[in-house]
Amino acid sequence: MTAAALSADNVTVHIGRSTLLSDVSLALRAGELLAVVGPNGAGKSTLLSVLAGDRVPDSGTVRLRGRPIGGYRPRELARLRAVMPQSSALQFAFTAGEIVALGRAPWPPDPDADRTAIAAALAGTHTTGFAGRAFQTLSGGEQSRVTLARVLAQQAPVVLLDEPTAALDIRHQQLVLHLARDLAAAGHAVLAVWHDLHLAARADRVAVLDAGTLRALGPPAEVLTGDLLTAVYGHPIRVIADPRDGLPLPLPG
């Protein structure tokens, strides 16, 4: 079995008397897209922040390439993993192009490589036309794609995406799905938090979180079942086979 690029072992996170994560263990492998799903408050974003090294768990260990993630220096960590948060608060009047260029900050200056990476990231996210515009003048969906372009320009082997399609229309949701799958196919380890179960069904594996507990982890056909989803989401969900590809297609019951 391929060694994990990033792993969590018995990770637990508390805030006061509330448990946000409880003994969660999972491994993200190079060359795969792992979707994390679950209802609001399930602990998805908390898990991503712990995996990114941005939050220290109360117990348990996160390892990146076999080393505890807390042992990496910030620049070294930024070369190994890139993170797209749910939202990006911006205090300065950067252009979209300057935001994407921030993805090159961990690397030694190389004008040719930087230009190539930035241009490819803008083109891949359909944001080339926004490069000269102030980031704050863009719509929520446009800002989301520019933020994704910054992640792509970073060229890290591990990519963590927190609800990357939340503000997007259907066309751009599919664009992001294909970008995530292409990254995995190129050898990156990609984890994406998704609310859309249809998108999650196109991942290589799916992790289902519920109230901070990992309820299931495995291939979509094994994990996205009507019984489990109904129990986790507290709403009737039925699952049929998508006539296009046979993958699970969750529908309201």
Give a written overview of the molecule.
The structure is a single chain. By secondary structure, this protein is α/β, with parallel strands linked by helices. The chain has one domain (4-89, 156-252): Rossmann fold (3-Layer(aba) Sandwich), CATH 3.40.50. It contains 9 helices and 12 strands. The chain has helices spanning 44-52, 74-80, 96-101, 111-124, 140-154, 170-185, 197-200, 220-223, 226-233; strands at residues 4-15, 18-29, 33-37, 59-64, 67-68, 81-84, 158-162, 189-193, 205-210, 213-218, 237-241, 248-252. It has a 6-stranded mixed beta sheet, sandwiched between helices. Strands 2-1-4-5 form a 4-stranded antiparallel beta sheet, with helices on one face. Strands 11-12 form a two-stranded antiparallel ribbon. Helix 4 (111-124) packs antiparallel against helix 5 (140-154).
Would you count the extended β strands for me? 12
Task: Please tell me the total number of domains.
Answer: 1
The CATH architecture is 3-Layer(aba) Sandwich
State the fourth-level CATH superfamily: P-loop containing nucleotide triphosphate hydrolases
Mean pLDDT: 95
Q: Give me the oligomer status.
A: single chain
CATH fold-level label: Rossmann fold
Instruction: Output the strand order for the largest sheet.
Output: 6-7-8-3-9-10
* Spans of at least 5 consecutive residues with low confidence: none
Q: Give Rg in angstroms.
A: 18 Å
Q: What is the chain-wise order of helices and strands?
A: EEEHEEHEHHHEHEHEEHHEE
How far apart are the termini? Answer: 37 Å
**What is the class in the CATH system?**
Alpha Beta
- Shape type: globular
- Structural class by sheet pairing and helices: alpha/beta
- Total count of helical runs of at least 4 residues: 9
Largest sheet: 6 strands, mixed
